[in-house]
Amino acid sequence: MITRTTRIRFGILIAAAALTLTGCSGAATSTTDTADTPARDAIEMSDAWVKSAESGMSAGFGELTNDSDADVTVVSATTEASPMLELHETVENENGEMVMRQIEGGFVIPSHGSLMLEPGGNHIMLMDLAAPLTAGEGVTFTLTFSDDSTYEFTAPVKDYSGANETYEGGEMNMGTGQ
Question: Where is the signal peptide (predicted)?
Fold first, then answer.
């Protein structure tokens, strides 16, 4: 036989469990709301520009800012200016030379932070240019994020004599003659 005291304790236990689950449910909802926000809504590109080039290769630069509570990953980029784009980093190889190479996993833009795309560092590499990139023109890029959302921006083309790193493996060079 269940005593009255046991029933009261059991009732209090059930009420406490219900309140705890309700509290967890509210927290899960806010986390889900953040996760459901597309990355494109949290990202902004500023100071974008592209290196002018007659042919071959070029690169896109700027600052990507993430205004969300979660890291955002850029997994690819496209543009009509080039049929082949790669997300690159510039690193020192075993011979002490600075070389460009495709970054594994894409660019991570930290929560409430930014990522600089700059000569001698991370950048968007344009290979096999479709046509010359002349200073004063604009190049439109579409970034794709790990959540499959996309973000479009246009970058002006500028003359720049730097960014002459060698592509890892030595098969390409982003020299001033291109």
Answer: 1-27
